[in-house]
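User: quick one, sequence for these tokens?
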């Protein structure tokens, strides 16, 4: 199969469903998309409450790891409400905020649609609507574990990155310290669901969040997946004792 080219126009943003929805670890794409549609309006507020504001520090760490430069073209996959995308545009990079959820993209456009070097595209992480080697850097925050076949998505990110381009994945992970890991599991099991129901617009969706975090592989396993996809110079760094981890890689030049 030859190189792909970009479609003539942006994918259509379908109407957001209002039927109550909760994804599960089967990660059916349509259910995952509808679930995020329903939490979009209060997504940022809920994240801030659940992480006690740490989400802003993690977002800044991700932006520094991507190190966007003026004129670069950067893909922010699973961009959600595009807060991370907006952060990447501040140096003058051209950023594509891509997400599977039309509700999330609509919320992002409502807040950041006036940023000239930011565009919004509805996209499936396992079949990206972009040309081979289109981006100088690609990044994905808290979205990879929601993909039905995450290793396929990692391969797609490699495909759309230029030779020598950069990958940064920020994802919930496994705290290496057993004592802290136990406290973290208690928080996720007992506290997080209550906060989500108090602040969020679809409390059951955050039950899935907890389940998906517990089922997600640890840092070395994700690093191995990234290497197997063809990325080089793969490394990771824990943030906040390993609650989340930044994984990096480089696409080979040749």
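Assistant:
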């Amino acid at each position: 199969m030859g190189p792909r080219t970009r479609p003539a126009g942006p994918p259509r943003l379908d109407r957001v469903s209002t039927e109550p929805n909760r994804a599960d670890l089967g990660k059916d794409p349509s259910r995952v998309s509808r679930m995020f549609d329903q939490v979009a309006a209060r997504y940022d507020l809920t994240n801030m409450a659940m992480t006690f504001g740490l989400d802003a520090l993690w977002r800044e760490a991700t932006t520094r790891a991507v190190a966007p430069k003026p004129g670069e073209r950067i893909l922010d996959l699973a961009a959600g409400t595009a807060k991370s995308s907006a952060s990447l545009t501040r140096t003058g990079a051209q950023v594509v905020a891509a997400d599977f959820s039309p509700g999330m993209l609509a919320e992002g456009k409502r807040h950041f649609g006036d940023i000239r070097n930011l565009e919004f595209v509805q996209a499936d992480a396992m079949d990206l609507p972009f040309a081979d080697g289109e981006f100088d850097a690609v990044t994905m925050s808290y979205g990879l574990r929601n993909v039905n076949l995450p290793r396929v998505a990692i391969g797609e990110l490699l495909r759309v990155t230029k030779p020598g381009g950069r990958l940064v994945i920020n994802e919930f992970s496994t705290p290496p310290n057993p004592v802290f890991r136990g406290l973290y599991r208690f928080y996720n099991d007992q506290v997080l669901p209550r906060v989500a129901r108090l602040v969020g617009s679809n409390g059951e969706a955050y039950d899935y969040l907890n389940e998906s975090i517990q089922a997600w592989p640890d840092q070395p396993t994700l690093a191995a997946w990234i290497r197997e996809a063809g990325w080089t110079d793969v490394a990771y760094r824990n943030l906040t004792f390993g609650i989340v981890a930044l994984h990096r890689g480089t696409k080979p030049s040749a």
